[in-house]
Amino acid sequence: MTSTEEETRMPTRDPKMHLLLLQTTGEPVSVFVYEVSPGSEEKTQLAKAALKRLKTLRHPNILAYVDGLETEKCLYVVTEPITPLTAHLKAQAERGGSGELEVSWGLHQIVKALSFLVNDCHLLHNNLGVWAVFVDRAGEWKLGGLDHVTPEQGDPSLPPRRSNPDMEKYDPPEGLNGSGKAAGEKWSGDVWRLGCLIWEVFNGPLPRASSLRSLGKIPKQLVPHYCELVGANPKARPNPARFLQNCRAPGGFLSNSFVESNLFLEEIQIKEPAEKQQFFQDLSENLDSFPEDFCRHKVLPQLLTAFEFGSAGAVVLTPLFKVGKYLSPEEYQQKIIPVIVKMFSSTDRAMRIRLLQQMENFIQYLNEAAVNSQIFPHVVHGFTDTNPAIREQTVKSMLLLAPKLNETNLNQELMRHFARLQARDDQGPIRCNTTVCLGKIAPYLNAGTRQRVLISAFSRATKDPFPASRAAGVLGFAATHNYYSAAESAARVLPTLCALTIDPDKSVRDQAFKAIRSFLTKLETLSEDPSKLAEIGTQDVILSACVYICECVFACVDENDPKQCNGGNPCCSFTRNKGSSGWDADDSWSNEKDADGQGQSSPGDESWGNDWDEEADASDRFVSSRKLSAPARKSGVSTASVTPTEGTRLTSEYNWDSTGARASHNDFFSSMSQRATSTATVSLGGEEEATSNQSRGLSKAELAKKKREERRKELEAKRAERKAAKGPLKLGARKLD
Questions:
Q1: Fewer Cβ atoms within 10 A, N terminus or C terminus of the chain?
Q2: For residue 585, what are the CA distances in angstroms to 81, 492, 549?
């Protein structure tokens, strides 16, 4: 045993009580110490008798004996850790007072212990009072003070009980009158003292015997039965067993949910499974009114035992988590977390869904290692469960688990399941909740995953047939607007939102307009003051702006020559390789394609970026057209489709100096100009008047369109002539770019 934590001198005898810890097990115990002194033979004899009785009497409501030691100078009695009732009531009064439920169960236990002594052991206690009652850690009352216990017929080996002047007020009146035990039943004296105990529990220390007539704060349900205990006629005082039965009648003081729950827990091992199920269901509703110590030390062990060795199943979860609120973090980790981890591996659907529903009660006690290695691998099975309720609860639980998930589980495994749910799940609410959950866990995703996933996922949600899913997609865009660059907001987000302004559902339209105004305000702020670029976006915004600038530069230069790209600007090289560095059109969560190998995704593809493939292709075509030369764009023909005539030299081979006769002779463009002029002169001779007449009734746009069409036909005709004259290409011939 180690250091003393508490010391209390008992009021009716010399022993002191100490609260200590056992060295062998570390469990707390209480130790009563009686010091032998000269001239105290009678007291020493009573102390030894108390030790003997405590060793031999075993009952749940009698103080439990652990160990003892008798020496010439001292007598040691080791019991379970307890607190004297007087100290317990004082502490409860400082916290607002003991509730009637706690007192009712305590009195039930004391009366039951007294009935055990009188009716089963045929013993008389002779020392019942607040000094003989102790309270354990669970708040249960224990009967002690066995110094004066005697058989019904008396024990000649014990000295006669001598009345202490301070204790005479607790003696029954027939004892004071000298009538002795023949005046009433054998239990008459003990039940009288029981009445005194009840009075002191509710009203405090008893000043005098006559005060028993004043009821004070004794509850009304208990008053009739209390009056029987302190009646003047000893023969009319009830047996402890009958008193207990009367108080347990419907409407009695001992007839309540707290007493019923305790009685069931004492016999839970012999109850039927159906009775256990019903009990645990009702227990959840009653726990809020039960004392905290009782829940921690009495209910919790029974709940853990019922799950570990019984067949209670998921029904114990709700009361278990309610009791867990009373535990310290260390106790929670030690007692409940191991059980929770084991529960997650259960195949019982009821158990799994209860765990997911109650996760907010214990998530703060789970460490990241346990979540990623022992809990998340079992939770993800809920994404593919055939029960929609489990799928929905699994999605909702990710709001709590996401902050504790590692890089792989969060950005890869979880995103893969979310993509499949949003694309394939047949339940609209589940698709909607998936979108909502994604928007809420976006801050925990890494930057690459956000750029790859968010826009594609919310865009897919806006095309969902379920209106709430479309609204969730809009709200997702609004909630994550800080993660989009100005270019993404303008080119990808706003077009998607604008399409929803004509949505059939008004709530979706309203949300779309709000989101559009928010994004437009952001872009207008950037347009008015470009210096706020750093406030609105991150480096991605700058890179996006460089992309568009460099694409304009590429329209007039050879993009294969880095020297022509603004002196080798790093953002230009980023644009040239954008297809391989993440700026491609594929925003899918995964690169998985269909088995046909054509790169086309099925309607149930788990990729979130496939909806944007066509748009991205159009964007690529637009960028490519901007890279054409000005004459080619004007003629409407791409440079790749123009095949130079045989013998034509490259532009770099010509003499660009226009001076001298040689230049006039070798200049290809001058000869082409002469031929074009002569041709125009000939054609104008016969068609000028007709063209003039036709153009009078045409607008400028129609004239331009007509000229382009004529030019296209002329070029096609020339191309056909050259191809026919040239014949098929020969092997080894070089095709000019």
A1: C
A2: 71, 11, 18
- Cα distance between residue 574 and residue 687, in whole Å: 53
Identify the CA nearest to 457 among candidates 630, 303, 316, 611: 611
Flag whether the pTM goes above 0.70.
no
What residues are paired with 20 via a beta bridge? 29
What are the Cα distances from residue 174, in Å, to 171, 182, 183, 445?
A: 8, 10, 7, 83
Tell me the per-residue pLDDT of 168-208, one tens digit each, with 9 for 90 and over: 788 888 764 444 444 678 888 899 999 999 999 999 999 88
Q: Alpha-carbon distance 261 to 302, whole Å?
A: 11
Collapsing DSSP to helix, strand or coil, 246 comes out as helix
Check: CB of residue 358 under 8 Å from CB of residue 322.
Answer: no
Cβ-contact 474, 500 below 8 angstroms: yes
Three-class SS state of 599: coil
Helices (H), 310-382: 317-324, 329-335, 337-344, 349-357, 368-370, 376-379
Phi-psi region of 102 (alpha: psi -120 to 50; beta: other; left: phi over 0): alpha
| Burial label, 700 (beta-carbon count in 10 A; 0-12, 13-18, 19+) | exposed
* Model pLDDT for residues 436-469, shown as the tens digit of each residue: 999 999 999 999 999 999 999 999 999 999 999 9
Q: How far apart are CA 512 and CA 471, in angstroms?
A: 8
3-class SS letters over 381-440: HHHHCCCHHHHHHHHHHHHHHHHHCCHHHHHHHHHHHHHHHHHHCCCHHHHHHHHHHHHH
* Rg of the Cα atoms in the chain: 47
